[in-house]
Automatic annotation (TrEMBL):
Record bears the keyword Membrane: yes
Molecular-function annotations in GO: transmembrane transporter activity
Name of the protein described by the UniProt record: MFS transporter
A single Gene Ontology CC term: plasma membrane
Compartments where found: Cell membrane
Pfam families: MFS_1 (PF07690)
Length: 415
């Protein structure tokens, strides 16, 4: 991988980092926002939910546009929109007496921007490299940046809120501007061939992809959703447990939340570097990751004292971390460039659904008892293990050799 490509990856890695910070950074600040604005818990939860719902709806559209118009042409304006959304929320919090609806409007803008920013990174990396092992390494780096944002966000958000409750909003346009500059000046998109397909023909080709490869594509969509559902649900549960059971809050709570996320981030980086273009290894690593995730929650069910809880959640973070670059690589390397943005956008949307569904579901389960958290987390993780085991089937040696000679064919055997 050349030095120029490394700079491209560095710039692209800023995009998921910025998007994650712009959302997750607000989670530890929500109690302060609720208190300052005098709003209900449901209203304050909309600050996160509205962002996710808007992104879920628009991600497939952004993926389609990136296939038709170009990745960078979609990504840069969307980063600017995300920054403007943060600025609207920040300005309203500072200058308006009753800013709640303006904050929500700003979060809607952020959701629009996020839909065309972070999800487009995956297909763009697939476009930039010819070698599958370079694609895997690049995707591992961006997953590391994504998780790095999750590691830093509770710490940064809690720290900023100790000064002024709305200060985290102001950092969103700042981070977005940095990412815009990096992407605009450092990322050189591969030259796009002149598009001869009509829209009807394009969607016909996308339909053919789902018809021929739907079995493994739907599996990756489902597993990506499950991983994000468990991850964000467990983070919500851990945050609540640290505060209510152990009376730990503020920056200290942010640091403790960051421990399993740091394990996730490191394991993502290592996994992306090691899997190369070996599809069989990708499947085995994903199986191992989902198995480790399921076993961690079985162990927590029987021993959930504080140190054991944190230790087992570190193991679950490793399980998620090693799996994510494998899923990214399987779907990116298995789809032709012309439809890659559209197909991977469905995967990104499913991950956002998991993010949006995790916290409210786990909040409901917590009312039923901690044991329900462990049963649901372990059960869904086991479901992901079974799906990967039976529905993702890498090609045999002969098929893999054929694929190297015919680069346009899909890399996975759906049968």
């Amino acid at each position: 991988m050349g030095q120029k490509k490394k700079l491209d990856l560095l710039a692209l890695s800023s995009v998921p980092l910025v998007m994650t910070l712009g959302n997750s950074m607000l989670i530890p600040v929500l109690p302060s926002i609720e208190k300052e604005l005098g709003i209900s818990s449901f209203q304050v939860s909309l600050i996160i939910t509205v962002y996710s719902i808007v992104a879920i709806i628009l991600i497939p559209i952004a993926g389609y546009l990136s296939d038709r118009l170009g990745r960078k042409l979609v990504m840069v304006p969307c980063l600017i929109i995300a920054g403007l959304g943060g600025a609207v929320s920040a300005w309203a919090s500072w200058k308006i007496n009753d800013p709640f609806m303006w904050i929500i409007f700003g979060r809607v803008l952020q959701g629009i921007g996020s839909a065309g920013a972070a999800p487009v990174v995956i297909p763009l990396i697939g476009d930039m490299f010819e070698k599958d092992e370079e694609i895997s390494a690049g995707l591992g780096l961006t997953e590391t940046a994504n998780t790095g944002g999750k590691v830093l966000s509770p710490i940064i958000g809690a720290f900023l809120a100790t000064f002024i409750w709305f200060l985290p909003f102001w950092f969103i346009p700042f981070f977005s501007l940095v990412s815009v500059l990096l992407v605009f000046f450092l990322v050189k998109s591969p030259k796009k061939k002149k598009e001869k397909q009509s829209i009807k023909e394009f969607f016909h080709q996308v339909g053919k992809v789902f018809k021929s490869s739907g079995r493994w594509l739907y599996t990756i969509f489902a597993v990506g959703c499950i991983i994000m559902f468990v991850l964000f649900g467990v983070l919500f549960y851990l945050s609540d447990t640290l505060e209510k059971n152990y009376h730990i809050n503020g920056v200290t709570k942010g640091l403790l939340l960051a421990i399993p996320l740091l394990a996730l981030s490191i394991s993502s980086y290592v996994s992306g570097k090691k899997i190369g273009n070996n599809k069989h290894l990708m499947k085995m690593v994903t199986l191992g990751g989902m198995g480790l995730l399921a076993v961690s929650f079985v162990a927590i069910r029987f021993q959930h004292e504080f140190l054991f809880l944190l230790s087992f959640l570190v193991l679950s973070g490793i399980g998620i971390g090693v799996s994510l670059p494998c899923l990214d690589a399987l779907i990116t390397e298995g789809i032709e460039k012309e439809q890659r943005g559209t197909i991977t956008s469905f995967y990104s949307a499913m991950r956002f659904i998991g993010v949006a569904a995790g916290p409210p579901t786990y909040a409901f389960l917590m009312g039923k008892g901690d044991h329900m958290i462990y049963y649901v987390s372990g059960g869904t993780s086991l479901l992901a293990f079974v799906l990967v085991l039976f529905f993702i089937r890498p090609p045999g040696k002969e098929e893999e050799e054929k694929d190297k000679k015919n680069k346009g064919e899909h890399l996975l055997n759906p049968t």
